Amino acid sequence: MTDMTEAAATAPKRPGRLAEFWQYFSENRGAVIGMWTFGILVLLALLADVIAPHSATEQFREATLQPPVWQEGGSWTFPLGTDPLGRDMLSRLLYGARFSFFVGMVVVVIAATGGILLGLVAGFAPKWLDTVIMRLMDIILSFPSLLLALVLVAILGPSLLNAMIAISVVLQPHYVRLTRAAVINERTRDYVVSARVAGAKLPRLMFITVLPNCLAPIIVQAALSFSNAILDVAALGFLGMGAQPPTPEWGTMLAEAREFILRAWWVVTLPGLAILITVLSINLMGDGLRDALDPKLKRS
């Protein structure tokens, strides 16, 4: 008995949840690089007022299509050059990051909130209501996401707000299906049955007993939805159905500059690179979150 007590005392302690999460997350080098890159981008967006050398909408007519500083004709006044209206590219990219991250957060919050609620209802609801909800989600998923968002924005009117609403509707079915599947898997487990026997009401079962155990795949989906939202709002902006000029949104910047792609490569390349780096860093971070949060991928 004493030997067993000593062995238990000397056994290594199981790491805390946060330490265990970081252990699995940090094993994915790409995820760590993506996290630091995303963190730097968020910091730049937050400090845009301090870092940006000019206003995002201020026009310098005498310096239209000025090249970046490292090219002949460039100037440190405009480190990344200017666009066709003489606006500073660096300033517009920094302020554009704010719009992109704001859109991503709002879309994820709206889509996840609505999707989780509908998924919980579908998971606990009678068969007929579950069927109605899931068939409605199947109808939404049967349309190409960008095309459906485009149709919704065309109905609501082109603006950044309507683009966010449209993208939220398009992304919502993923959360509904994911939450419903997790709820159906969890509701037959012993702890849920025990809560029912103990007299727990349905709202408590849904939001306190079951939902916390379904969050891991939802968090991963939220990270991927964040990058999809940034891509979709950039695509709608490029098509003229998202943010309207002179808003410094990356997709809108691409649309305004496409006719100058051969004369001034920087006005198209720089916003495109900003979208690429942001989406890639978020997707890499999402892979790390999946590795850290998915029990099936964890080694025993």
UniProtKB/TrEMBL annotation:
InterPro entries: BP-dependent_transpt_permease, MetI-like, MetI-like_sf, OppC_N. One of its GO terms (biological process) is protein transport. PROSITE patterns: ABC_TM1. One of its GO terms (molecular function) is dipeptide transmembrane transporter activity. It holds the Pfam family OppC_N. GO terms for cellular component: plasma membrane. Residues 97-286 form the ABC transmembrane type-1 domain. The chain crosses the membrane at residues 31-52, 99-125, 145-171, 214-240, 260-280. Keywords: Cell membrane, Membrane, Peptide transport, Protein transport, Transmembrane, Transmembrane helix, Transport. It is a multi-pass membrane protein. It is found in: Cell membrane. The keyword Cell membrane applies. Belongs to the binding-protein-dependent transport system permease family. This is Dipeptide transport system permease protein. The lineage of its organism: Bacteria, Pseudomonadati, Pseudomonadota, Alphaproteobacteria, Rhodobacterales.
